[in-house]
Design a protein that fits this description.
The chain is of the alpha/beta class. It has eight helices and ten strands. The strands form two sheets. An eight-stranded parallel β-sheet has the order 7-6-5-4-3-2-1-8. The protein has a two-stranded antiparallel sheet with strand order 9-10. The longest helix is centred in the middle third of the chain and has 16 residues.
Amino acid sequence: MNLLEVCCGNLDSVRAAVEGGAPRIELCSALELDGLTPAREDIKAARSLFPDLTIHVLIRPRAGDFCYTPEEVDLMCRQIETALGCGADGIVIGCLTPSGDVDKEAMQELMRTARNVTFHRAFDVCREPFSALEDIIELGCRRILTSGQAPVAAEGTDLIRELRTRAQGRIGLLPGCGVNPRNARRILELTGCSEIHASASAREADGRKVTSASTVAAILQAIND
């Protein structure tokens, strides 16, 4: 069975993801900034409300690039400890050098604290994706969330498929960005992946992006029919 991970920027989205049948979420805040570290209270609430849900927590202390100072790396380590202490099942992180390579030194520091790690879409701005793939595998990450360095995953399927081939089962590839009920199955078919990532969201009257339970259910049906 193919797996859907739903990106949730608030507790309303977590509830909708579960209602729609999602087995796993990526919990974050500030989706309008492409996601930041969620509040401790939201992690604890999600864990308490849904004890059987697999919860991966994004650790990203600020918007902008993915080049972090030593002080920011220290903060991220503390945020990882907090997330795991609140019941997170996995951690989503990514650090780059100013030249666009994986920042192995920063990542090694974070990996000492983290577990079940997804390297997030910082991968999509790496200057050399195949070298980055090997670095991320060497670090011990479990999966890479990627649009195949394209604006949306449906346009990056060739690179995702090539990454999956080169990985040879050493790491999972998680296509994400622009995934919807109409293209999800095709993305999995073209890439050979068995997991996919989507926010499945709509914008509320107050401007918030909130996950739609019906969209989650429709994606799940599309990828598992």
